[in-house]
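Suppose you are handed only two things: the residues of a chain and a line of SMILES describing magnesium ion. What would the bound structure be? This form records exactly that question and the answer produced for it, so the two can be stored side by side and reused later without any lookup.

QUESTION INPUTS
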Amino acid sequence: MLEALAAVESVKLAPEGGGTVRALSRIGYDLQDALADLIDNSIDAGAGRVEIIFFRDDEAVTSVTIADDGRGMDRKALKIGMQFAGRTDHAASDLGVYGMGLKSASFSQCETLSVISRQGGAVSAARWSVEQIDKDWSCELLEDDGAEEAFRRLCLPSKRPATGTLVVWDRLTRLGVGGGDEDLDTFLATAVSRIEAHLGLVFHRFLAQGVLTLALTVKHVRRSLALPRTVKPLDPFDYPSSGAAGWPKALEANLPGVGALPMEAHIWPAGSLADGYQLGSRSGGAYQGFYFYRNSRIIQAGGWNDVVRNDQDPELILARVAVELPPGGFGVNVQKSGLQVTAAQAQALLRAAGDGETFETYLDAAREACAASKREGRAPKKAPLVPGYGIPVGVRKSAAKRLAGEGPAEVLDFVWEELDDEELFSLDLTDTRLVLNKNYRRAVLGDAPASGADVPLIKMLFFLLFRDDFERLRFSGKRAAYLETCNALLLDALRK
Ligand SMILES: Nc1ncnc2c1ncn2[C@@H]1O[C@H](COP(=O)(O)OP(=O)(O)OP(=O)(O)O)[C@@H](O)[C@H]1O
Ligand SMILES: [Mg+2]
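ANSWER OUTPUT
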């Protein structure tokens, strides 16, 4: 529009340091997405093993290290690697696209990022800190002997790789939990399980093929015993037999600007308790939708991208569609946790067809499988809900035993977060969490101290009141109005 206007002068406007990093740290990475982004780099570097260690003391997680046995970097490559949007010459088969992941993922979690890498017998090390970026964008190159020693000590010490890379996050900004040892234990137990499930899902093809092993460890800085947990592949299409005869079927969508996308449309059997259906703590129904893969890595797990109106359609809980994206970066967000699909592309996905079926007939078949299971009384047998994070560990254990016996269970977590003033609580059906409004925490606690496992009696009452809603996975209009009334009644009582 204004291209024709003549320029009278041009000025260099380099990014302002502090603002840039503050913006980066708000880019919307979860811890698990940030870790996945670093694992992408390790895979691109040909690594066969990646180990993530959370170092903790009594109060907090103090550092996180991500170590691999990939091809490593020499000093020159390290400098480019540390640069924001540094030059990249990725092959189409690489997971890396933007030249940003290492930095943006790290600064979403920490204030100091160090990278130590070994290649050709030499170790090179560099460090970014938010202060240095703030000051003048100077990246510090670190002394060789200390870096060598740190590499030997921290980068897969049991394997002593000839080449490899160690990424260290210090001064963590998002991983602090105030309130003592038990709190941190509970927090870590929940966080590590979530990360394990997420990484197992995102990289399931690599893990199942045996080209990658991933291990997670929590290590107390003053104790030596720390057993690594090996991440198991979590395949969202791994059911024993299909939920509908004739399925899965291959469909193809022709996306404007992209080309032909191969898709495989699946229908899960109803009521499955398989890990591949439950996918960690979430209930399987919340995981319906598209599974976008790019170079074998999951970019998005579930959700219909506006192709179907409701991402949690109760009639489509058995429907999952694997979609293979082309190798280029097409529409993938920077943190590689989702896909932007334009309206025209959504239309094209809806018009996908193949194998004598269309996307619409596929959805009908998935709906019919769900309806048939209900008619036949095979109502999805769900794992019972048990209270989780937010309740003291001992109480959780006995509750799980009473409600689920030794069998599988789904966990309801309790968290304090900011909600609207008219809400004391809110039910988060997607993540199976009961959110309490932290603005009322003081009032609810009375004289009791705040901790991750505070007010267990009140949380347990909430659990009993609302567990059916989590099992049903949806609210009717009437039920939503009732929840609103519950909030109003409780707040009247609290404000008295
Ligand atoms: N673990 C590693 N081993 C070897 N080289 C690495 C490692 N991590 C990063 N690098 C190098 O640093 C570069 C920058 O990494 P970064 O994650 O910031 O961007 P990218 O992977 O190129 O693209 P994207 O932003 O899509 O992740 C990589 O291209 C790679 O050359
Ligand atoms: Mg990367």
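WHAT STANDS OUT: The longest helix spans residues 180-202. The mean pLDDT is 88.
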